[in-house]
């Protein structure tokens, strides 16, 4: 996503920081909810070209440059390897497939649209905290943001962030000029999904980016940060006229979609340990990259593992049996990702060992 441009600060904020330095500077202290609302009202008036959104956190998480950072969960890590990122996306695709199947099984309203649109799948998986996604939660409600900032917070203060985004025009708004996607949860969630309605939730991410990107920094929502406030983590912040939203309202009970999302982990395979799935997919990602590199020595224009194996079967006869076995594992890998309920823990453990053996043996043959 592109950096916010043309944003203007209030007089009070301008004495404290600048748009350029707001992520690095301390939060502007406000003592009460009313004072915060008044500051936001001024910001909204001054920034007519931007629609303001909010996020509340108990801590001000910083990157290595000591700036506030807001990466979607799938990109969070100081040292994110390509193998780990590929694994996270494999897990996301697998969870998406199961979500579609469960919506169909439970005859949830909106199942047909869910099946066709990955952003709806990802939005539900993100909002219900099922797995990592390329989207991050924000809200248009200051009260919701403040309530989340104070929720389960044992610190003396909390933080409220204000982001300037383009005006949204649809339920799923894609702004190609700003490289942004903004999803209004209230419009895409089925009525039985209670949480998005109570939280007034939106999800935002970088358009058309998955597991390949040029600069990780372009995925950070701090590119759109306009203001950062530090609020007291106490009831006194709300005063007599306002109240925080209680936890049982932010996370309402009897939410059928929450129950479905809890079932997703069970459907990954009743006896399959998630750590074993992770081991297999990480090993596969490592050997896949090595196989692609080897194949490109013979034919440069190779972009997928299936074609790479075909090339190596032709040019490296001394490893024919090994790559034939790898091709069989490629089919198993696809089942792990797309049909996880069809595999057993024994199969998974056995193929983890086979992958390890193949990596060693192929290395010996080509050394």
From TrEMBL:
Top-level taxon of origin: Bacteria
FRG domain location: 48-161
SMART domains on file: FRG
InterPro entries: FRG-dom
Protein name: FRG domain-containing protein
Organism: Marinobacterium lutimaris
């Amino acid at each position: 996503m592109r950096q916010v441009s043309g944003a203007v600060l209030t007089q009070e904020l301008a004495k404290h920081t600048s748009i350029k330095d707001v992520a690095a500077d301390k939060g502007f202290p406000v003592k009460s909810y009313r004072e915060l609302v008044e500051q936001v009202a001024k910001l909204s008036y001054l920034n007519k070209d931007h629609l303001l959104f909010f996020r509340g956190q108990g801590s001000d998480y910083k990157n290595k440059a000591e700036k506030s950072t807001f990466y979607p969960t799938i990109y969070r890590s100081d040292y994110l390897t390509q193998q780990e990122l590929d694994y996270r996306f494999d897990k996301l695709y697998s969870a998406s497939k199961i979500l579609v199947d469960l919506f169909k099984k439970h005859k949830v309203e909106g199942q047909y649209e869910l099946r066709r649109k990955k952003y709806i799948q990802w939005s539900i998986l993100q909002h219900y905290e099922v797995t990592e996604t390329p989207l991050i939660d924000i809200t248009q409600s200051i009260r919701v943001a403040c309530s989340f900032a104070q929720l389960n917070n044992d610190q003396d203060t909390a933080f409220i962030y204000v982001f300037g985004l383009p005006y949204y025009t649809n339920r799923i708004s894609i702004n190609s000029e700003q490289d942004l996607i903004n999803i209004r949860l209230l419009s895409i969630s089925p009525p039985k999904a209670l949480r998005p309605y109570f939280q007034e939730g939106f999800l935002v991410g970088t358009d058309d980016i998955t597991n390949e990107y040029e600069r990780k920094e372009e995925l950070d929502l701090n590119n759109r940060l306009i203001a950062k406030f530090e609020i007291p983590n106490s009831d006194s912040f709300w005063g007599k006229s306002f109240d925080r939203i209680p936890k049982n309202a932010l996370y309402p009970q009897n939410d059928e979609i929450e129950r479905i999302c809890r079932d997703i982990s069970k459907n990954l395979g009743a006896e399959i340990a998630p750590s074993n799935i992770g081991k297999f997919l990480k090993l596969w990602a490592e050997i896949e990259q090595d196989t692609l590199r080897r194949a490109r020595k013979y034919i440069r224009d190779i972009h997928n593992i299936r074609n790479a194996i075909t090339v190596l079967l032709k040019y490296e006869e001394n490893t024919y049996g090994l790559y034939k076995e790898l091709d069989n594992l490629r089919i198993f890998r696809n089942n792990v990702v797309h049909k996880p309920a069809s595999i057993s823990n024994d199969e998974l453990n056995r193929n983890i060992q086979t992958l390890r053996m193949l990596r060693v043996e192929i290395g010996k043959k080509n050394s």
